[in-house]
Amino acid sequence: MAKLVIFFLFKLFLLCSLPRSNAVYNILNYGAKADGQTDSAQPLLKAWAAACHSSSPATIHVPAGSFLLSQAIFNGPCKNTEIKFSIEGTIISPSYYGKLGDSREWIAFNNVEGVTIRGGNLDGRGGALWTCKFDGRSCPTGAISLTFSNSKNIMIDGVTSINSELFHIAIVGCQGVRIQGVYILASGNSPNTDGIHVQMSTGVSIVRANIKTGDDCISVGPGTSHLWIERVFCGPGHGISIGSLGKLGDGLQVKGVQNVTAKSVMFADTQNGFRIKTWGTNARGYVKGVAFANAMMRNVQNPIIIDQNYCPGNQNCPGQNSGIEISRVNYKNIRGTSATKVAVNFDCSPSNPCNGIRLKDIKLTYQNRQAWSYCKHAYGIATGFVIPTSCL
Ligand SMILES: *[C@@H]1O[C@H](CO)[C@@H](O)[C@H](O)[C@H]1NC(C)=O
């Protein structure tokens, strides 16, 4: 009892002696205007500098309204490990895509720790750039709407991203990232507008995301480990994709992907469901320890697919023989409809067959008819009911 009392007194002492004042930096006080025309780059960067140099928790507030932003790169390291952006309004990118050009980043954080982004709309206004790309004119690459690189303990909560020029959100070289309640929206035929891209990162979780876009809903690049994906709606889009790994020109050694879980996912009218994709090149690496579970597919072209022979245009992929080893991939409780005859497709590498594939409780049909499985260099087991019949 005495111990308990002392413990509480101690806590009280901590609370009283270390008041964690939460300073609020409203960007209007730094010259921002909610008129959709005045560039808020300087106001945002000034508010950031103030928050970054302070050692008590800071909130950067973007009130309601429309804020034009040319580009903002928020660099650390900061003294502060508790910086929150609370966004009520919409941040819009320059209307002319040439402004961001090949810069690849619109809003980016580099080398920061303990940053939260809560709420708000990010409007990348990518439409004109997509049209340029469709027309085959010479166009700039464009910019990812929101990037975190080399950062730690990041939270992206309740953010809406629409019409990004390139990816909507990219997480690169980070540790401990939680992305929750995000809404991502771009046209189903917009090029390279991946919803969330994760690469060279560990301990990333993506929960409760609603993603409608033109490329992968979630794409997983090299060097990703301990990734958790749960309760995602995907469609239109290209599904949840590990890869492509071993891209021609990316070197002979690829950082591996391991321990990826994706569960409770709904795919509607997507190109793929769960996909693992490697180039048909001799780059070496691995994908191991993947769990895909509890998914509903509606009219999905390739509900379950491993493609180790990716070689766009069939150009210069030496030997068409992937050096990426794929092992321990679990598919469990996946149901629904395939938009093509082959619902389960394991097209693995002759020199590195897929090993330890497990299928359990699968039911995929093709227009109320029987669907098919295709296996090439793929080994593993099927248990429970598996429709279409496993070819492992
Ligand atoms: C796999 O990753 C999850 C987080 O997604 C983590 O909780 C778990 O401990 C990891 N498992 C292993 C074996 O590292």
Explained architecture:
This protein is mainly beta and 392 residues long. The protein has a domain at 237-392: Single-stranded right-handed beta-helix, Pectin lyase-like (Pectate Lyase C-like), CATH 2.160.20. It has helices spanning 2-17, 41-53, 127-134; strands at residues 23-26, 35-39, 58-62, 66-68, 72-75, 83-87, 90-92, 104-110, 113-118, 121-123, 143-149, 152-157, 160-162, 169-172, 175-180, 183-185, 196-199, 202-212, 218-220, 225-234, 240-245, 257-268, 272-279, 284-300, 302-310, 323-338, 342-347, 354-366, 369-370, 372-376, 378-387. The protein has a 20-stranded mixed β-sheet that branches. The chain has an eleven-stranded parallel β-sheet with strand order 5-8-11-14-17-19-21-23-25-27-30. It starts with a helix and ends in a 5-residue tail after the last strand. 45% of the residues are buried. The structure holds 2-acetamido-2-deoxy-beta-D-glucopyranose. 2-acetamido-2-deoxy-beta-D-glucopyranose is lined by residues 226-228, 259, 261.
Kindly summarize this structure in a few lines.
By secondary structure, the chain is mostly beta strands. It is 9% helix and 53% strand.
Please outline the helices and strands:
Blueprint lengths: L1 H16 L5 E4 L8 E5 L1 H13 L4 E5 L3 E3 L3 E4 L7 E5 L2 E3 L11 E7 L2 E6 L2 E3 L3 H8 L8 E7 L2 E6 L2 E3 L6 E4 L2 E6 L2 E3 L10 E4 L2 E11 L5 E3 L4 E10 L5 E6 L11 E12 L3 E8 L4 E17 L1 E9 L12 E16 L3 E6 L6 E13 L2 E2 L1 E5 L1 E10 L5
Parallel strand pairs: 1-3, 2-4, 3-6, 4-7, 5-8, 6-9, 7-10, 8-11, 9-12, 10-13, 11-14, 12-15, 13-16, 14-17, 15-18, 16-18, 17-19, 18-20, 19-21, 20-22, 21-23, 22-24, 23-25, 24-26, 25-27, 26-28, 27-30, 28-31
Antiparallel strand pairs: 28-29
The site of 2-acetamido-2-deoxy-beta-D-glucopyranose (NAG) has 5 residues, from strand 20 and strand 22.
